[in-house]
Amino acid sequence: MKATVYAGRNSVEVQTVPDPTILNDRDAIVRITSTAICGSDLHLYDGYIPTVMRGDVLGHEFMGEVVEVGKGVTNLRAGDRVVVPFPIACGACSACERDLYSLCENSNPNAGIAEKLMGHSPAGLFGYSHMLGGFAGGQAEYARVPFADVGPLKIEDDLSDDQVLFLSDILPTGYMGAEMCDIKSGDIVAVWGAGPVGLFAMVSALLLGAAKVIAIDQVPYRLDLAKKLGATPLNFAETSVLEELRDMTAGRGPDHCIDAVGMEARNSTTAVDAYDRVKQAMRLETERPHALREAVMSCRNGGTISIVGVYGGLMDKFPIGAVMNRSLTIKTGQCHVHRYMRPLLELIRTGEIDPTVIISHHLELDQAPHGYEIFKHKQDNCTKVVLKP
């Protein structure tokens, strides 16, 4: 089969690789009909996630048709149309029983590697390094899905792939980012990053009752889309974010701040941006945490910092004094996708959420290298690339 594989820093290739096969009674094989390039795939592409090897099949946002199931999978059969969540979860461990699916205790066969960096291991993820399981991803013609009796969501109506594909990751991730804020009527929410996850966090915050949502980015077409979705744009390249947020909130700061940027944040201040870039390039820190620093310093006293942007390891100059002295609450995590798929599917069915608005490009799988380039460099007004195997 054809698949998008890691070919070194800033390089992916579409190669012919072996077809997946059933390895466990709870496996399924899915023929991919739609898959997508995620912002967190760019961290792999840029070489910032450890234990990624040349030839690894990438991609963790995918859906398709079941073509084969193991004898332990009784809830799916060949021909079923499914969306596959990006975390792999057994459904039976202590974490899964608490709906903390991205922390599954049984799905990462390489947990020992993750423990050395993180203390404890999260769940295995599709297409996201050997530290997180070494599972082949979904930017391919076929994928093996472990624990298929737990993860895949069956789509039994005529909703299009574009409408439901993002249930695999970015829609639940954005929603969880807003939900962790515990938004009350009248609250003001600031979102750093107007990429796909940030846009869905904005939509979700408004659905959950926010009076105002502020979108912080520097790319005009992304800010334009955020405005169309109901947010107030703030271009950090043109002004001081801290001062603007104080002005917008009568000096108090936003009630909740969502970091939807993660480890490769940019900064309009040349010196600060250069500092983080040099430290990251020299592997003296793994993150460029400016967006998170800014969120902490901007948030009102007693407010919430919600982190759904991906971080991989260690950061420098994190303002823990502000967090402690100002009673800030930090909530974070890889999304527990399984928890949100069905409720969000209902919101899509009723038209309360339209995930298709963020799609800018449909490309053939063979065009994946071009898709990575335009997504990374924000060319051709690219907001989201959907690949069609």
From TrEMBL:
One MF term in the entry's GO annotations: zinc ion binding
Signal peptide start-end: none
Pfam families for the chain: ADH_N, ADH_zinc_N
Keywords tagged on the record: Metal-binding, Oxidoreductase, Zinc
InterPro entries to which the protein is assigned, alphabetical: ADH-like_C (IPR013149), ADH-like_N (IPR013154), ADH_Zn_CS (IPR002328), GroES-like_sf (IPR011032), NAD(P)-bd_dom_sf (IPR036291)
Gene3D superfamilies in UniProt: Medium-chain alcohol dehydrogenases, catalytic domain, NAD(P)-binding Rossmann-like Domain
SUPFAM superfamilies: GroES-like (SSF50129), NAD(P)-binding Rossmann-fold domains (SSF51735)
Residue ranges constituting the Alcohol dehydrogenase-like C-terminal domain according to the UniProt record: 196-264
Cofactor entry: Zn(2+)
Keyword Oxidoreductase: yes
Domain Alcohol dehydrogenase-like N-terminal residue range list: 25-153
Family statement: Belongs to the zinc-containing alcohol dehydrogenase family.
Full protein name: Glutathione-dependent formaldehyde dehydrogenase
Organism: Mycobacterium intermedium
